[in-house]
Structure formats: C-alpha cells, structure tokens
Protein: Phosphogluconate 2-dehydrogenase
Organism: Azotobacter chroococcum
Amino acid sequence: MKNIVLYKKLSAELMTRLRQQAQVTCIDDLSADGLARLRDALPTAHGLLGASLRLDAGLLDLAPQLEAVSSVSVGIDNYDLDYLTRRGILLTNTPDVLTETTADTGFALILATARRVTELAAWVRAGQWRKSIGPAQFGSDVHGKTLGIVGMGRIGEALARRGHFGFGMPILYHSHSPKPEVEQRYAAGYRSLEALLEESDFVCLTVPLTAATEGLIGARELARMRPESILINISRGKVVDETALLEALQAGRLRGAGLDVFEREPLPADSPLLRLDNLVATPHIGSATHETREAMARCAVDNLLAALAGRRPANLVNPAALEVAQTTG
Ligand code: NAP
C-alpha cells in the first residue's frame, strides 16, 4: 500500500475512500508541532494532499519516494514547479469546481465596497443610526459601471458573466492573449493594462501569482486608476503592492478596495489597512463554502488516487513530470 500524508482535514466519506487504498497519516494543523509531524512522515510518503503550505525543496528533499502532490487549490504558487518536474513528482490542482464560488466572492467584495456594506453595518451596530441617513452614508452604483478584469481565465470569465448579464456592466479585460469568444459572449473589450486601469470603475484581479504578476499593481498602476474607482483582489496578495495601495487609499486617490488576499496571511491585526473605512478585508474566503470546499477536496482525492495508481490525473499541472517519472521509475 502507498503512504499518503494529509495536511488538510477531509470529510469522513473521503477519508474512508483514501483509507481503502492507502495508509493515511493526518497532520491536523500546520503549527510548529504539526510541521514537525509532517517532516517525520515525509521519508515514507508517496503522496501528499493539502493546501496553504509552501512546499519547497528543503521540505520535499525529505521525501525521496514522493510520486504526487495534490493541492486543494487552483493556485499553484506554493510549489516549485521546476523542482517537482525535475524529480518526476506529479502536481495536481482543483480548477473549475471553485470558479463560480470565487466569482461570487469577487462580487460580494464589489458590492460591499461600493455600497459600504461592512462599514455601515458596523455603524448601525455601534448605535450610530439615529435619524435617516444622508449623503455622508451614500455609496456608489454598481450596475451600469465599467468592470475591468485583469486575468480573463475561468474566474475572470465567471465575473464577466455576472457583470454583463446580472448588473448590465460594460466589461473590459486584460490578459496574456485576447479572447474573442469572451468578447462576443459578454460584449467585452480587450485593453492594455494601462488603458483598463484608466477606464474601469472596478478593477478586479484574477491572475495567478507568478514571477510576471508579482507586484503587477504598484504605485504607478494605482495612479492610473480614477479617484472614484475601486480595486478588488481575489487572486493572491503579492499581485498588489500593499504599501502603495495603503498610500493611495489614505490619500483618497482611490474610492476603496476589497481584498480577499494579502501579502502576509493571516493579515496581522495591527495592519494599517484595517484602519481604513474604505477597505473591506475578508480572510481568503474565495472558495470557502461548504459545497465548494467539499468539491475541491473530492477533486484533490481523485487526482491523488489516479496519480498513485499510475493513471494520468484529470488536473495534472506538470505533464512533463510524467516522462521523468517513467524514465526514472
Ligand atoms: P486561470 O483560468 O488560469 O486564469 C488566469 C488568467 O490570468 C488566464 O486567463 C491568463 O491569461 C491570465 N494571466 C496569467 N498571467 C498573466 C499576466 N502576466 N498578465 C495578464 N494576464 C495573465 O485561473 P483561474 O482558475 O481563473 O484562477 C486564477 C487565480 O485566482 C488562481 O491562480 C488563484 O491564485 C486565484 N484564486 C484565488 C482564490 C481565493 O480564495 N481568493 C480562489 C481561487 C483562485 P491567458 O489565458 O491569456 O494565459
């Protein structure tokens, strides 16, 4: 039997499936103790399954028998792809099953920032609602405003659909390459990043974190945005220069920001971002619904069991590793 190390809690049903086919070691949390237990389990591990942990060479060198890593996420920025491929270790992720939920989160942030939902809900709780509200509590419209999407992939397209059909928003987008079908479906217009920033009321980031997208939105880019516009980040924190964003928000050069992801997570409680009324911060909840997290876990289990059984997993990120595995295995 193969050895699987889990560093993510799974439902009883998925645990039963895994245990029918492998020896399973569970690491319940990623505290110092948990990490020590993970290190102890790595020397005999054939498969790993989890998320939210940077698996670098320092850790994976401890796992000489490792055949597959199954990430319970679509983002793969926690993995050194070249290293995994060189060693013939298959990496899989969980795309598609989280697309719609993550786009919902994007829209939740769009609405919360534009209509000041969290700020004003806190104001009501604090007993401030003593008479009819006035312009000091007004927000700005979402419907009919221009939605600029940076990264027109799966989640980007799900946002475009919501914006176009649900809110009557003109859609602009920037991506590696133009997407004629998306343009047709949602009357979307391709723009350079600079033009998108200048023309959009909402700029929503849905790119993966890569060397090319790290710091994609810095002081120069923020300066191109309109003062009444709002930045939404549901991709990865490091895509935005947080210090530059803080300065832009403090100086009133942007109306607001909705962030689900941060340079450092968990976001420290003393982060100056949390002192801004015009910033809505959520704790990396993009895909965090019961239904979607279960679907992601099921997808990750399927991927891992296929890889360990010598079948090609449905969501293989590094197909080149298959060849390496075949020649070395
Ligand atoms: P996807 O389908 O691969 O879409 C990513 C898009 O980004 C692609 O269309 C790609 O363009 C574009 N892109 C990549 N690099 C770019 C660059 N340098 N400049 C411009 N465009 C670039 O991925 P997805 O499933 O939509 O997921 C996107 C990301 O969302 C994930 O990688 C993850 O980091 C993040 N995410 C976050 C959460 C959360 O909890 N907040 C949940 C799910 C996902 P081309 O198609 O032209 O190559």
